[in-house]
Amino acid sequence: MNINYPYLLFIGDATDSLSIKMARSAADWSPEKCLAEYRLPGCTVSTGCPEMNIQEAAAAGAKSFVLGFANSGGILDPQWIPTILEALDAGMDIVSGLHDKLTDFPELTERAKALNLQLIDIRHPNTRFKTGTAKKRQGKRLLTVGTDCSVGKMYTSLSLTKEIKSRNLLATFRATGQSGILVSGNGVAIDCVISDFISGAAESISPDNEAEHWDIIEGQGSLSHPAFAGVSLGLLHGSQPDALVVCHALGRTHMRGLPHQGFPTVIETIELNLTHAKLTNPNAKVVGVAVNTSSVDDAAALQACKEISEQTGLPCCDPIRHGVASIIDNLP
Amino acid sequence: MNINYPYLLFIGDATDSLSIKMARSAADWSPEKCLAEYRLPGCTVSTGCPEMNIQEAAAAGAKSFVLGFANSGGILDPQWIPTILEALDAGMDIVSGLHDKLTDFPELTERAKALNLQLIDIRHPNTRFKTGTAKKRQGKRLLTVGTDCSVGKMYTSLSLTKEIKSRNLLATFRATGQSGILVSGNGVAIDCVISDFISGAAESISPDNEAEHWDIIEGQGSLSHPAFAGVSLGLLHGSQPDALVVCHALGRTHMRGLPHQGFPTVIETIELNLTHAKLTNPNAKVVGVAVNTSSVDDAAALQACKEISEQTGLPCCDPIRHGVASIIDNLP
Q: Rounded to two decimals, what is the model's pTM?
């Protein structure tokens, strides 16, 4: 997968800022890759990028037209086909993180082929993976894990990568979900891999590297989430992390999407992940806790992080509010 | 998936009895579905079924031509295409458990369509699954789990189903791998499901049922196998088992296929599976241990089972040598 940039971020007529998470992630973390956003009448949200239409963006050098929104079910609404064809005609590759595949629409595949442009379905790996081998690889690895889904694992991973690089150490962010892939330009949407190959795909995401290099691997799901724990476990085993960072969000009372499902503590999450991590890396250790404190004020955020730090004996911070220096200070 | 029978089991020129596991499983456990086997010159193994060629089997009423062999990589060797076409022309559906899909061969899809026959790739689910919900379902469920892959989970599950039914209780074997699917005529190859949907697919395998009915669910892999633990965990969560049976094989020194990977104890396997099972069924309990003792003599087999029973406080038996009555006696 090779995503050309700069991007034109298409957010359609979105009115919910959560629905444009993919576009916002790219704008926040790879602003140098984002030329502009393309909004339609009725759209009430923004990535913060300047506005351009397809012709303006093409003239300014846009290389990829990114479907930067999501909807429940990941459907590609046929109403957008003419817009996508216009972007192809303007010379851009098309990038989608939807569940529906661009390549399932014959009018798109024909036009892209005729124009020698790419249709990139970033949720659908086109690599044929192998099953996991659990063989030790060179280099160091850090994996973010969570008490739940959507607790900030990608933002934490990107913050950690930025902090390490600011210290002139070698590090690479390794994306495992569609937003992360758009930010970094490559990666594997691990939850879209055939389940026999989860660990093998995870192994391929952080290959052998220089001994002092850190791969910062974006985690997915949670070992305590009944729908997605299998993905989390395969990713954990294949990543062979030397270091784990537990991500957590304040104010949750149940697992995401499952009102009847209770929430694990940070301590339980540490123990569960360490137990399993040691299967493929006996030296694995948890080096910090990252908390999404957006539901409380500054004072309460500091207090919550202090309490978790005391309970766990680990550095604890909100990456957005406090930065992640204390966690990087604690790397092995 | 609806596999018509009786089957003609095609084992080609196989010389390794392990390579015809799928055909042998059907012959052993669903002899009423197996009309005959079709062997070619050079074949040195057998399912024990009478021999017939395609024309003889068609005349005797065969409804499905089963590719009953496997090879490393699950490749469909093009040399078999003429044979498969002959079976289609004789009026049979084609059933394959290979990784390569029958439906990827245009000459097969065209012929099957013209003759209104099915090409059934049992490793490739064609259902669109949902993500798991962890909602409680009615009925009782038993899942076999393992210290490793290939320790007898399918044979144990089938033995348990047979024993329950012999007591005039309601039970259904639920297949999760290609051999089991061929035995039962339906099921889901869980390791071929997109990883986002492992638990959801597992939930669909044992739907709501009568309160006293037992689903006996065939386990896959092992929570301690670095390549396949994600599949095992998703299957465990989605199955919501009331009862677990731990399967084990004597004489293993490392995890299957991974010479560098140590082996868990039965006790560790019990604890690990119970910890995770309680996420979706707080009342889950382990009710017995099934051991493949084929590597030792009768006396050593009995002694090994006695020792494991004393260590675990659970009934322990080799399903083939001793039957599984003691485990069924211990059901909740």
A: 0.94
List, in order of start, the domains of chain B with CATH numbers. 7-121 (3.40.50.720), 140-329 (3.40.50.300)
B307: number of Cβ within 10 Å: 12
Residue A180: burial class (beta carbons within 10 Å; 0-12, 13-18, 19+): buried
- Looking at the complex, report in whole angstroms how far the Cα of residue B119 sits from the nearest Cα belonging to chain A: 21
Determine the residue among A145, A196, A269 to mutate to test chain B binding: the one whose Cβ has the most chain B Cβ atoms within 10 Å: A196
Query: Distance (Å, rounded) from C-alpha B269 to C-alpha A130?
Result: 26
Average pLDDT rounded to a whole number, residues A118-145: 94
Answer yes or no: is the ipTM higher than 0.85.
yes
Residues of A in contact with B224 (CB under 8 A): 279
DSSP 8-state secondary structure symbol assigned to residue B187: -
Predicted pLDDT at A74: 81
The strands making up B119-121's β-sheet, listed across from edge to edge, are B34-39, B7-12, B64-67, B93-96, B119-121
B231 closest CB neighbour out of A133, A192, A196? A196
pLDDT digits (tens, 9 = 90+) for B173-213: 999 999 999 999 999 999 999 999 999 999 999 999 999 99
Q: Which residues of A touch B275 (CB under 8 A)?
A: 272
From the candidates B195, B197, B223, B265, which should be mutated to test the interface with A, based on the most A CB atoms within 10 A?
Answer: B195
Asked if B75 reaches chain A (Cβ–Cβ under 8 Å), the answer is no
Can you name the residues that pair with B245 across neighbouring β-strands? Answer: B144, B288
